[in-house]
Structures are given as structure tokens and as C-alpha cells.
Design goal:
Helices cover about 40% and strands about 20% of the residues. It is of the alpha/beta class. The chain folds into two domains: about 150 residues, Response regulator (Rossmann fold, 3-Layer(aba) Sandwich), CATH 3.40.50.2300; about 150 residues, Response regulator (Rossmann fold), CATH 3.40.50.2300. The strands form two sheets. It has a seven-stranded mixed sheet, sandwiched between helices. Strands 2-1-3-4-5 form a five-stranded parallel sheet, with helices on both faces. β4, α4 and β5 form a beta-alpha-beta unit. The chain starts with a strand and ends with a strand.
């Protein structure tokens, strides 16, 4: 029986975690690892509280797990702080080189490897789809949660690149940081005051508990919304463009398989996604008065009626 840990900023009962756990177990089963037979997974969820991640990561490091799966940067960074010897497999890490998690994508060199996503390119493509869906809308509000420790400078650089991507499409972008879940009501008032016509939501533990409130607000105010996480369109968001969840999980689990069979994480190149989804919520788009152009509809990998 092999034991691995799983660390996430999110809530244990979140819909996406239930889906992610199901896809993870199925992916591992295809690789010969079956939960309860030759593999146990020790999960730790921070319930949206970044401050808990270090404690939970240290718990896993002390528990004797052979490997820690960490989902998204806050959890990945916490796992890396907790141990420099236990292998850490990233699920959808962001800027792992710039944050200091790996030496390079081709040769990580330490105890961290896994999958990473290029968020600037994904954001730029999302903004392009927004322009095609609503050519006359230009004022965009961008919501982000608090950056993980040590990520502030990288976030500033990323914000600059995302700002330039929006400007290249004729958009004006207002970055609105969300420090805590209780800030959401004030944030929505801010969006109203700014007369935003477009809304882009970056995943954060501070935002996730009030996500349906945010998408409902966007519908009531006829705002075209997009998000950088797969399930955004499933909670009444208008659209999602980004990496395919199954592809990211399968690639991440291939690292688990190779490491459990003896590979060293520092020798396994970080992998980028190769499959991407455009998911459109047609019900939401109709509610905000947008008719989807045929050329955009043809590019959709999934539609929600």
C-alpha cells in the first residue's frame, strides 16, 4: 500500500473538488493505482483560508506520505516550504520558474515537478473571445484573490502583461483585488460604480464561496463574465476558455505514477496542457442579451443550455 498526500486551498465539499477527486482516482486507476487496494490518498483542504496551508502542508510532510499532490500555486508554494525532500507534484502551477519552485521547465532540479499553465496567453485568448461575443463592450473588471506569499512581484509583472493584452484589443481593464470573502459585497458595488461591461474572475479561495453571487450579479447587470477555472460556466458564468481538466489531471497523475515507480522529480520536465476548452453557457448569454456568433459557437467544445 502506497500513501500520497493531496493539498488544496479550496473547500472539501466544493463541487469541483468532488469532480477532481473522481477524475484523479479514475486516472490513477488507468495507471495501475487503485484507491484502497494499493494506494491511499491523504487529503487536506484549507477551506479557502490561505493561512492554514502551511500547517496542513507540514502535517502531510510529517505523516509519512511518499508524495504530495498540490493544486494551484498557494498549495504548491506551501508544500514546497514544508519539505525539500518529499516529491511535490504540481497541478496547474503558475510561473513555477519565476516563483522559484523549479530551476527550469525542462529540468526542475529539486523536489517539485508536474503541470503548469501559461495564464497570460489564456487570458489574452479569453479577452479575444469576449470581443467576438460582444464587440462594443470595452470596460473590463478583473477580480483576483490575494497572491500567495512570495508571489507579489510576479503578480505585478503578470498584471502588466494582462493589461497590455486587454489594451491591444481596445479594452480598458480595472484590476480589483479581493482580500477576503467578506469583501465581495463591496467589490460588487465597485464594479457597478465602474460601469464595467465585462468581468473576468480569477480563481481564489476568497472568491470561491461567493461565486454564484458574483455570476448572479453579472447576469442581473447584463455583464459578460468569464473565468479561468473549468467549472465557471457551470455556476452561471457566461464562458470559460482554458486547459481541459481531464488533460491536466491525466498529465499530473502521470508524474505520480512515474515517481512512485522510482523516477526523481527533478529529472521530470514540467508539462504544459495540450488540450483546451471553450465552454459557453448559452442560458446565461441569452439572459444578458448576447447572441453567440456562429464562428464562436463552432469553436466551443461544450455548451450549457
Amino acid at each position: 500500500m502506497r500513501r500520497i498526500g493531496f493539498l488544496s486551498l479550496s473547500k472539501a465539499d466544493a463541487e469541483v473538488n468532488q469532480l477532481g477527486a473522481k477524475l484523479t482516482r479514475e486516472s490513477l486507476r488507468r495507471l495501475g493505482w487503485e484507491y484502497g487496494k494499493n494506494l491511499l490518498i491523504e487529503p487536506r483542504y484549507a477551506e479557502g483560508d490561505v493561512a492554514r496551508l502551511d500547517t496542513l502542508a507540514a502535517e502531510l510532510a510529517r505523516s509519512g506520505v511518499e508524495l504530495i499532490l498540490a493544486s494551484a500555486n498557494p498549495a504548491i508554494v506551501a508544500a514546497r516550504r514544508a519539505t525539500q525532500t518529499i516529491p511535490v507534484v504540481m497541478i496547474a502551477g503558475i510561473f513555477p520558474v519565476e516563483v522559484g519552485l523549479v530551476q527550469s521547465l525542462a529540468r526542475p532540479g529539486g523536489n517539485v515537478t508536474g503541470t503548469s499553465v501559461e495564464i497570460v496567453e489564456l487570458y489574452a485568448r479569453t479577452f479575444q473571445f469576449m470581443r467576438e461575443l460582444a464587440p462594443r463592450r470595452t470596460r473590463l473588471a478583473w477580480l483576483t484573490g490575494p497572491p500567495p506569499p512570495g508571489f507579489d512581484q510576479v503578480m505585478q509583472a503578470v498584471s502588466g502583461e494582462i493589461l497590455r493584452a486587454a489594451q491591444a484589443l481596445g479594452m480598458t481593464i480595472q484590476h480589483i483585488p479581493v482580500k477576503a470573502t467578506d469583501d465581495i459585497a463591496g467589490v460588487l458595488e465597485h464594479i457597478t460604480a465602474s460601469r464595467a461591461e465585462l468581468l473576468y474572475v480569477s480563481y481564489s479561495g476568497a472568491i470561491d464561496p461567493r461565486l454564484r453571487e458574483i455570476t448572479g450579479f453579472a447576469i442581473r447587470n447584463k455583464i459578460l463574465s468569464g473565468g479561468d477555472f473549468t467549472w465557471f460556466a457551470s455556476v452561471d458564468g457566461a464562458m470559460y476558455y482554458g486547459s481541459n481538466l481531464q488533460d491536466i489531471i491525466d498529465r499530473s497523475m502521470s508524474f505520480v505514477d512515474r515517481i512512485l515507480r522510482g523516477a526523481k522529480p527533478g529529472d521530470l520536465p514540467v508539462e504544459l496542457p495540450t488540450k483546451f476548452d471553450l465552454i459557453l453557457n448559452l442560458k446565461t448569454l441569452r439572459a444578458i442579451g448576447i447572441s453567440v456568433p456562429k464562428n464562436v459557437l463552432l469553436q466551443a467544445t461544450d455548451v450549457i443550455e
